[in-house]
Amino acid sequence: MNLLSETDVADSISALCKALDENNRSAVGMDMSLTHSLGFDSLKLMQFFAGVEALYPEAALEDWFIEHSADGRDTLRSAVSYLVRFLPQRAAKG
Prior knowledge:
Elements: H1 6-20, H2 42-55, H3 62-68, H4 76-86
Helix pairs in contact: 1-2, 1-4
């Protein structure tokens, strides 16, 4: 099984956020917060979590989000680091 590359995971997460971003930003930066920068509401967050779980079936970002969202640390970079750390032996589906 392939190791997860941080770059591959970052590309996947960034593409997912772009697809969910109603403001159609041309760039989604890795230091953007899901709630503060991207303005994801509860529906968008659920779509984000579902999208991540579709890419990485064993992923569960809810605990990560609870820990990081209150003060804007819910960045894409933080999510990618979490995924790479906890799913080191998995490859993205598709």
